[in-house]
Amino acid sequence: MAAAATLPMELIVDILSYLPVKCICRFKCVSKSWLAIIADSQLAKIHLSRSPPREKHLLVDKFLYSFDHLETGFGGGVVPAYPVMKKHTSGSVAVEVYESCNGLFCITPKTDVYLLFNPSTRESKKLPYFQPTYGNDLLSGFGFIESIDDYKFVKVLEGNTVHVFSLRNFSWKVVGCKFLFDTDRCIEFGVPLNGSRCVKHGIPFKGKLHWVLDKPDYRGRVIAAFDLVKEKFKTLSLPPGCFTCLSGIGVVGDCLCVFDIGKNVFWVMKKYGKKESWTQVSKSDLCKPIAPSCFLKNSDMVYVARYNSKWTFCYEEEGKKWKDYAVDGLGSYRVHRYVESVVSPNYK
């Protein structure tokens, strides 16, 4: 490795950025200088900007498991999942998980404890405790803002109060914010695979957090988007005629989507913020409730499906064939999509 040590840092970063995450993690042991290079956020950004990152799923029960569709293959049947965190989990209660940004999760293994966690590198970091102001939690979420290069965790409380944590500053602040929505029938991730309602977690996309909420006095529904830069709410219109049937909101590919797992219909917003760009996709020919999850490299779609009282995955082959697979040892779990990355909880 002596010869490698003489290479310019820029060239080392460029070479590493083309490698799988597992390989990059192994190179942390080469030297302190390589460890510093890999820990730097510059490598994480370049690595994410290369060819489309590998998409995986985090399965949440009393522990956290990683599930890789490409590694598992698509022959159907029962397939394994691999534990990625046990150190911070008690095993007695389900871990609370917020949607990921660039492969980084915010998780709550127990009350009032928040961790940033990357399942690809197994790194974690505890957030400082915050003293909540008056009011119960209404909404919460974790997101990334590319324009200011920062990750933020948000808790919306009663009384128009929002607590915002900045990873770059590693501190909390309280902001006032007009909150003109009703959260009684809040729709967030919408695929509660343990059979219960999820906590009201927002979907991160385009530097905003998104929920489907009622207008005051239940005068219709909208997508409420909290801008993580301006730290204010704005609204996006839902597809026409879908107000009463929605069961979830998420991101598929590079588009925001809402879906109805009862009718196997989902709508994709092809141009963010443009009401007229909503496009409906129907999979009514499949005799099981499904929710869109992610694309494979060949543009085939992976879905989460309900079948014989158990949740499984299935994928579509060239829009025609379907294959199903269940996860070994897990009959009740929640699903969160993420991409492999070397983004560190110590992001700077």
UniProtKB/TrEMBL annotation:
This protein's source sits in the domain of life called Eukaryota
List the NCBIfam families hit by this protein, alphabetically: F_box_assoc_1 (TIGR01640)
| UniProt lineage | Eukaryota, Viridiplantae, Streptophyta, Embryophyta, Tracheophyta
Query: What SMART domains does the database record attribute to this sequence?
Result: FBOX
- Residues forming the F-box domain are 1-47
InterPro entries assigned: F-box-assoc_dom_typ1, F-box-assoc_interact_dom, F-box-like_dom_sf, F-box_dom, Gal_Oxase/kelch_b-propeller, SCF_F-box_component
Would you tell me the protein name for this molecule? F-box domain-containing protein
Which PROSITE patterns would you find in this protein's record? FBOX
Q: Name one Pfam family in it.
A: FBA_1
